[in-house]
């Protein structure tokens, strides 16, 4: 009877194959964990920024109310009067709030942009077209819609929406 000495080449190759498949699985899990963590981080930032704008709006009830509606579909590119330095009118405060909020979106989210508008159907709209219907039913419902590029392809495909009732 022959006694086996050592390990055959086939056993070594099978062991290497099983180990390689296991390591590839671990690497795949790690990549997915990093991706999901990044997505969660961006969604959390969008949530905080949406609630920040909602609180800004609620602190300026004159600018929010009918017939003023200063927060409806503003332009965030125009430089606004710095309302931290002194007293501002409700219109100036709304412009400043929107300008500062737009800067935060741009700085904290990849290709971040957003719109605030009166909208009775807030869960629609895409980047560049918020599809705001300006339905002035009482009470008017404001929608805060934030768009950003989640996967780095240069397209703002991710969206976060929240409603604000004055």
What features would you describe in this structure?
- The relative contact order is 0.14.
- Helix 1 (9-58) packs antiparallel against helix 3 (90-108).
- Helix content is 44%, strand content 12%.
- With 166 residues, it is α+β, with helices and mostly antiparallel strands.
- It has helices at 9-58, 61-64, 90-108, and strands at 113-118, 142-148, 158-164.
- It contains three helices and three strands, in the order H-H-H-E-E-E.
- It has one domain.
- It is elongated and about 100 Å long.
- A three-stranded antiparallel sheet has the order 1-2-3, covered by helices on one side.
Overall structural domain count:
1
Biggest beta sheet attributes: 3 strands, antiparallel
How many β-strand runs? 3
Report the β-strand fraction as a percent range. 5-15%
Nearest-integer average pLDDT: 85
From the spread of the alpha carbons, the general shape counts as elongated
Q: In DSSP terms, counting alpha (H) and pi (I) runs of 4 or more, how many helices? A: 3
What value does the Rg take, in angstroms?
A: 26 Å
SSE series: HHHEEE
Helix content: 40-55%
Structural class, by secondary structure, is alpha+beta
Instruction: Give the oligomer, counting copies of the same chain as homo and different chains as hetero.
Output: single chain
Strand order of the largest sheet: 1-2-3
Note the gap between the termini.
91 Å
Low-confidence stretches: none
């Amino acid at each position: 009877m022959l006694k086996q000495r050592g390990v055959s080449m086939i056993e070594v190759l099978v062991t290497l194959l099983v180990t390689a498949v296991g390591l590839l699985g671990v690497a795949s899990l790690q990549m997915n964990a990093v991706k999901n963590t990044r997505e969660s981080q961006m969604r959390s930032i969008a949530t905080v920024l949406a609630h920040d704008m909602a609180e800004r709006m609620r602190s300026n009830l004159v600018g929010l109310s009918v017939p003023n509606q200063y927060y409806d579909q503003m332009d965030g590119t125009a430089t606004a009067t710095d309302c931290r330095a002194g007293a501002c009118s409700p219109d100036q405060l709304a412009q400043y709030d929107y300008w500062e909020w737009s800067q935060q979106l741009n700085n904290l989210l990849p290709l971040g942009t957003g719109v605030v508008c009166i909208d009775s159907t807030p869960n629609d709209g895409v980047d560049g077209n918020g599809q705001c219907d300006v339905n002035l039913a009482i009470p008017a419902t404001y929608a805060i819609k934030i768009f950003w590029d989640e996967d780095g392809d240069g397209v703002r495909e991710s969206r976060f929406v929240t409603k604000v009732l004055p």
